[in-house]
């Protein structure tokens, strides 16, 4: 019964925060007046209050109020009673660590499985996968586990980047990194380019946005998947 | 009494493996006929044997034999008796995890502190810092800790990359990532560009190579440091 939008990024180049998703978010959050915002990923180390204020301004454009999860006396109850939930991007390790520290990861998952519409961007999408093992982020804190919510039977690699031709930098390409991941982990990985998202509507899981995504499976060549493809059989 | 070369990368663009370091490595390893190679970081998931063979070819050009640490019945003793040690790049999480699993991290550190010349490149340099919290790698395995050898009073960010002007990708720049690191961690970080290395000779710690490095300190603006600068007071 889940309703999820797991997006590669909050912001595409040349557009405001969440702006490219506004038309999607109106019907997605139609039953919600207030969105509970999880600010734990703290991009650039922004404070929870400042991050919530930023997101609040963005959601006001589609007529929604926003309340930071950190302001609730009982955050477990807040998640369970939420009309809609948004987890913003930032650092995936910091986000997951805080969810574990506050013992909220199962409540968040349960609320989503109960049908609460959930929007994640970047780090907030990463935690929908089986693990955060395909995050691009710097490991600036040590979470008690890399296990994430497992709402999908695969991992997500947000901000997926194609190799840049003519690049002289010797660091690994994203594709090489994901191929290394598959030496140690069996689950498929979906490389979501900026502007793409995964939409879950009940049992249906589809790729949305105008772009292709890149699907990596252990022991197989990576393939491109078209927008609007059915992802429900990927495991 | 340590002798360390901790390099940003094994390979600079347009040159063979370790080639740009050959003239440094001859005097550095002058007492060593055989180098013990730690292949655990497995770039692109290469096997220990294949990685050791590659490194062996590279060291043969300066007249050294190479033996993989994985081939010793008693790897602790091998580290303690080594004439020289090289840890190659790949995935830092995989490298550190394996060092912990085999309970070798303290032996490696002790051997280095006893004066065994140690060369690290990329992941092999990362583990010389206080933690691997400024690695660029994908967290494809979960090590029991991010704590590294602490041979320096700072962290290293290898393959340091300056922001690319005109880039439309919305992922964080390296500088932003390191600034997020400093929201949670106090130690300085040295961003080592490809072609730079840190040389430890007894009590002396210096930046080597032709390039500047970038020094990040908590709560301060990042600064450029010149080649041949003394790094021993950075903590």
From TrEMBL, chains A, B:
Entry GO MF terms: dipeptidase activity
Classification via CDD domains: GAT1_Peptidase_E (cd03146)
Keyword annotations of the record: Dipeptidase, Hydrolase, Protease, Serine protease
Keyword match Glycosyltransferase: no
EC supergroup of this enzyme: hydrolase
Domain of life: Bacteria
One Pfam short name: Peptidase_S51
Entries under Gene3D superfamilies matching the protein: 3.40.50.880
This enzyme's EC code(s): 3.4.13.21
Presence of keyword Ubl conjugation: no
Family: Belongs to the peptidase S51 family.
Protein's UniProt name: Dipeptidase PepE
């Amino acid at each position: 019964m889940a309703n999820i939008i797991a997006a590669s990024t909050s912001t595409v180049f040349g557009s405001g925060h969440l702006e490219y998703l506004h038309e999607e978010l109106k019907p997605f959050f139609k039953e919600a007046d207030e969105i509970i915002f999880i600010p734990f990923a703290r991009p650039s180390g922004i404070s929870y209050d400042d991050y919530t204020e930023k997101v609040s301004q963005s959601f006001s454009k589609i007529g929604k109020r926003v309340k930071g999860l950190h302001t609730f006396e009982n955050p477990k109850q807040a998640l369970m009673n939420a009309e809609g939930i948004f987890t913003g991007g930032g650092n995936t390790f910091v986000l997951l660590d805080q969810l574990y520290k506050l013992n909220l990861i199962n409540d968040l998952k349960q609320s989503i499985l109960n049908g609460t519409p959930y929007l994640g961007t970047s780090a907030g999408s990463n935690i929908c996968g089986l693990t955060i093992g395909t995050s691009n982020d710097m490991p600036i804190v040590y979470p008690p586990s890399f296990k994430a919510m497992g709402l999908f039977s695969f991992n997500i690699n947000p901000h997926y980047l194609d190799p840049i031709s003519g690049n002289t930098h010797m660091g690994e390409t994203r594709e090489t990194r994901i191929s290394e991941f598959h030496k140690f982990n069996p689950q498929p990985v979906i490389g979501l380019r900026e502007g793409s998202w995964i939409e879950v509507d009940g049992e249906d899981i589809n790729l949305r946005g105008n772009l292709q995504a890149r699907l990596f499976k252990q022991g197989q060549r990576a393939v491109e998947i078209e927008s609007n493809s059915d992802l429900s059989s990927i495991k």
